[in-house]
């Protein structure tokens, strides 16, 4: 009697184990099939390698922009293998679409000079505020992270584009004259004492 109960218990355990194993296998197969199926939907990210119309900046600035900005802000998007697996690919495609809509270095020559300068100042402000490159991109592409030196290089280049104004010597002379008159007047009123 005892061995018969043991055998039936073993049969029940084996059946439940096989049943559980089949359920796990079915779930894994369904997951794999779903994963493969979502790979079919791939929004287009146009790749147009071109230097025509590209931004013309010093080599050190260009190297920084290519490393940290071009994947989303040019027609030269360079996706890594992990960027091409859905659903990550969908996020990347959306970031690239939005990035190019805001600023596309490959179509730089189509912007008026004033708009180019404004875009560069906007670029610097976005970098300085930490909004660009976006953190999710930096996480997966650590070489895109901008160092303090990189930020200084960009800042110095953009600052060099600002118009240079020669000091107005007439305004300076008037200011100095008014300052001297004001100082003398206060000295005579006793409000300014001489230091020993």
Residues in β-strands, percent: under 5%
Query: What is the 3D shape?
Result: elongated
The number of helical runs is 8
In terms of per-residue confidence, which ranges show pLDDT below 50 for 5 or more consecutive residues? Answer: none
Helix content: 55-70%
Strand element count:
0
| Total separate domains | 2
Cα distance spanning the termini:
118 Å
Mean pLDDT: 80
The helix-strand sequence is: HHHHHHHH
Structural class: mainly alpha
Described by strand count, sense and barrel closure, the largest sheet is: none
Radius of gyration: 33 Å
Descriptive key words:
196 residues; 2 domains; 8 helices
Fold and architecture overview:
This protein is mainly α and 196 residues long. The chain folds into 2 domains: 1-38; 59-160, no CATH class. The protein contains 8 helices and no strands. The protein has helices at residues 2-38, 59-68, 70-73, 88-102, 113-128, 135-140, 148-160, 169-189. Helix 5 (113-128) runs antiparallel to helix 7 (148-160). The radius of gyration is 33 Å and the shape is elongated. The model has no long low-confidence stretch (mean pLDDT 80).
Could you outline the blueprint of secondary structure elements for this entry?
Elements: H1 2-38, H2 59-68, H3 70-73, H4 88-102, H5 113-128, H6 135-140, H7 148-160, H8 169-189
Helix pairs in contact: 5-7
Structure, briefly:
The protein is mainly alpha-helical and 196 residues long. The chain has eight helices and no strands.
């Amino acid at each position: 009697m005892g061995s018969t109960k043991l055998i039936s218990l073993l049969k029940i355990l084996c059946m439940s184990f096989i049943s559980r194993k089949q359920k796990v296998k079915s779930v894994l197969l369904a997951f794999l099939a779903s994963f493969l199926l979502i790979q079919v939907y791939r929004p287009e990210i146009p790749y147009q390698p071109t230097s025509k119309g590209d931004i013309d900046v010093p080599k050190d600035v260009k190297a920084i922009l290519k490393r940290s900005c071009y994947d989303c802000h040019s027609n030269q998007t360079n996706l890594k293998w992990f960027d091409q697996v859905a659903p990550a690919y969908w996020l990347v495609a959306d970031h690239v679409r939005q990035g190019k809509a805001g600023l596309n270095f490959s179509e730089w020559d189509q912007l008026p000079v004033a708009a180019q300068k404004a875009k560069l100042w906007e670029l610097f402000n976005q970098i300085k505020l930490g909004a660009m490159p976006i953190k999710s991109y930096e996480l997966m592409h650590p070489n895109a992270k901008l160092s303090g030196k990189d930020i200084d290089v960009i800042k110095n280049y953009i600052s060099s584009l600002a118009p240079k104004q020669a000091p107005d010597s007439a305004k300076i002379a008037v200011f100095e004259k008014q300052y001297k008159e004001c100082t003398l007047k206060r000295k005579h009123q006793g409000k300014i004492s001489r230091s020993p």
